[in-house]
Here is the input.
Amino acid sequence: MSRLAALTVLALAVAASAGAHPWHSSFAEMELNPKTGKLEVALCVSPLQLEEALRRLSKTRLVLEDREEKVDAWIVKYLEKTFRVEQTSGELAEIEWVGKEVGVKQAWLYFEMPLEGGLIGSEISQQTFLELAEDQTNVIELKQGQRKATLKFERQRPKLRIGKKPEEDAKGGRAPAADEKAPSSTDEKDR
Here is the structure.
């Protein structure tokens, strides 16, 4: 076997084994719009995981590419159960659906959440697909003005309170306040 053929076979074997172990994660960009007082959310998820979660919730098979409003309504119902922001008043922020973009490998879900009183003291719960995969990780890049924080949610820690000190938060999660420097894996001290 020629060297090029051997390298090709090796590359194909590595690619096949990488595809055999799915990565269970979602990513969201979340920004507080100071003009509207709404959190603007763009959530990137696996279409296959989303269809499975919707099938379990609706007890029927739903196809994301369908333009039927019932698919979007079921997505909103699922998000209302798994992507929540509890405001400082104790009220849950409502989800205002904007739309979706569905591809083969990823689906982007767009929605807004009106907030009264801002982010400080609110609690974010990002439990999307935690019922489907034990190793599910959900990441939110939270922006408010020039400040950014990267928040990580897992089965062991599905909620974070914004701007509270760890000893004050009985649930154990903490995210930096808007006026704090957000911890990041790319901080200067880590380089």
About this structure: The longest helix spans residues 3-20. Confidence is low (pLDDT under 50) at residues 4-21, 164-191. The chain is about 25% helix and 30% strand. Residues 107 and 165 are 35 Å apart (CA to CA).
